[in-house]
Amino acid sequence: MWLRFAPLRLPLRRRLQTAAVLQWVFSFLALAQCCLGLFVLLLLGEGWALAVLYAAWLYLDWETPARGGRRSAWVRRWAVWRHFRDYFPITLVKVADLDPARNYLFGFHPHGVLVAGAFGNFCTEATGFQELFPGLTPHLLMLPFWFKVPFFRDYIMSGGLVSSEKASASYLLSKEGGGQVAVVAVGGPPESLDARPGAFTLQILGRKGFIKMALQHGAALVPVFSFGENELFNQIPNPEGSFLRTAQERLQKAMGLALPLFHARGVFQYSFGLLPFRRPIHTVVGAPILVPKTPSPSPEAIDQLHKTYLEKLVQLFEDNKVKFGVPENKHLNLI
Prior knowledge:
Elements lengths: L11 H33 L3 H13 L12 H4 L2 H9 L2 E5 L9 E6 L6 H7 L6 H4 L4 E6 L9 H7 L2 E3 L2 H8 L6 E6 L2 H5 L8 E2 L6 H9 L2 E8 L6 E2 L7 H13 L6 E2 L17 E5 L13 H22 L12 E2 L1
Parallel strand pairs: 1-10, 2-5, 2-7, 3-4, 3-5, 6-11
Antiparallel strand pairs: 7-10, 8-9
Helix pairs in contact: 1-2, 1-4
Organism: Sphaerodactylus townsendi
Protein name: 2-acylglycerol O-acyltransferase 2-B
């Protein structure tokens, strides 16, 4: 395979954009391991006292990821996130106003490989969430495993990431006075195994936990579709029933983590690497579905709201797909 190298002369802004995305990919793939290694080195070396103090702090702070986290407005407004946004670029699109007196559960679709749209829009202020939705505070739900890693947990919480366990979502959606947004990538890690250019497969037909949660707390449901999310990476072919797909699914069930074998471009060449392609992401936040508070919802009520949600999600996709580069003959594949 011939390598297609990047030009030697590039504007500084493009180099800054590439650097911003490079550090983001590193954060997803390797920062947790580096933080854990640093903690072990401190514990076994001369910094053992600092490690012990941090361990004591960790014990006292253990429940914070499930109780709204600890966001930092300063971190969310770092200049690096503006360069990250402009690399693709990422755009946040509002369909309807959202009343800040309510709490909301955003269903984010599709998961993609590294949920770039969800991160850029809801864990930073680079795309103007606060200006578009004044009075609302977004929290992106992430697997609880990552909040057990020393140092790394504090970094991801600073952007507004919180644990995806039920108690975490319940804490947000039960807040008096409203203004809280729990953002859930409904398809979860399994959906990332189908994330590739041109794919519109959503794992949602059997996923009703978020529907039940919305009913229990009377939180308005909002479908969110991120056009371009699946265009960022290629994947090694892994059709259903293949050896690779079977191994990935078994690993996901055992560890809770999916491992899509993805690739796109490199830093200095465009032919192969782990950096995403420069392709636009348009994240469209749909109109709210008002939900009556039902502390003990029946299976029938859950099924009916789930059906309504699917109808609104499909409508959101169909109404916006041509505008954001999806062919008219393409439709969602709900499984």
